[in-house]
Known about the structure:
Layout: E1 2-4, E2 7-10, E3 13-14, H1 15-21, E4 26-30, H2 31-44, E5 51-55, H3 62-70, E6 74-77, H4 80-88, E7 96-98, H5 105-113, E8 118-121, H6 124-136, E9 141-146, H7 172-182, E10 188-194, H8 205-221, E11 227-229, H9 247-260, E12 264-267, H10 271-274, E13 278-290, E14 293-298, H11 307-311, E15 317-319, E16 326-327, E17 330-334, E18 343-347, E19 350-351, E20 358-361, E21 382-387, E22 390-395, H12 400-403
Parallel strand pairs: 4-21, 5-6, 5-12, 6-7, 7-8, 8-9, 9-10, 10-11, 11-12, 14-17
Antiparallel strand pairs: 1-2, 2-3, 4-13, 13-14, 13-20, 15-20, 16-19, 17-18, 21-22
The structure holds pyridoxal-5'-phosphate.
Amino acid sequence: MEYRNNNLYVEKVNTNFLSKKIKTPFYCYSLSKLKNNIKEFKKNFYEINPLICFSVKSNNNLNILRIIGRFGLGADVVSKGELLRALKAGINPNKIVFSGVGKTLDEINFALQKKILLINAESENEVRNIESIAKKKNKKVNIGLRLNPNIDAQTLKKISTGRNKDKFGISEKDFIRLLKKYNNSQNLNIKCLSVHIGSQILDYKPYLKMMNVIDGIIKKTNFKFEYIDLGGGMGIEYNKNSKKLNYKKYRLIIKKFLRRHKVKIIFEPGRSIVGNTGILISKVIYLKSSGNKNFVIMDAAMNDFMRPALYGSKHQIVPAKKNRTIIKKIHDFVGPICETTDIFLSMPSYQKIKENDTMAICDVGAYGIVLASNYNLRTKPAEILINKSNIKIISKKENLKKII
Ligand SMILES: *Cc1c(COP(=O)(O)O)cnc(C)c1O
């Protein structure tokens, strides 16, 4: 994504032109960016030779999953729906892990039937259920146990998952007890220790603490895990001055760990693979000046893209056509939905905007379309994929008649 002659392009496609051809708002992804991110991620951990299971909840578009699958990645799923979608995209069951605190009996049954790599259990009662289902089927099932390492990932409160007050995983004490309790189970094979401490992590130190906790547990128990699943959480740069995650430091910590423990590492990245591959293209419906503010009322709203309203996260908004006139007034970029939280961004000043101008909300590839809803009875937006100058609709805009 870059400006040429003051026009915003995604690969070889002018976004202004796009917004005339396709009804706004819509998600627009770059294939080359996606490919690059996958290559980059692989390169960062090349020496570790991990199994990379893409976190399907961050973006579950079938087309995107197919591309990711073709690059040899597996999937991390958190529901039967995501498991079905990953399989439909051609991802090998042998590269699929199933996470989540509330897997139902139906979901566990289905996962066993599909012979996925691992079910990562998050509570004692879930382990009990998996065992009893496996017993009925007269099977021995591979599972992981998700540890809650009680670490603060230093990210947004609402996307932190590794503290003891969060609902995820099993405390160290219970973890060690469960290892002993189920070690000789006829129907369970505990193969993996899994963790995932949160999302949008930009500091390697929480990862260092996490690795130390894992190291401590292995030393204490002498348990032989075949896999250590480190989850995802690698942060991306949502703004220019953002800190960058030091992949080298993280890699070195893992390499050191692997010298002591012969295990296969699993990663479950979501955001770092798809986050910066997409923009949400929207048009300005109205401008409204009120008090000391200019409201820029766009045709995209919180139902199309929920992160700012849900987490208070900030996504840059850029014009499809740049100009040089700066208006020194607060600009609030808002949607038409009847909620005060339906605001994307507030800027102290902005270039001159006219009604019908095209704008792009940046870095919406992860946790974007997947969180879209029909709130205010609005249709969910289309998704398109750009490959050089080729434009492909990979998910149509919802049909208003159908949902009515
Ligand atoms: C959400 C989630 C991920 C992906 O997190 P990102 O921050 O998008 O990399 C990985 N593992 C589990 C268990 C998750 O819930």
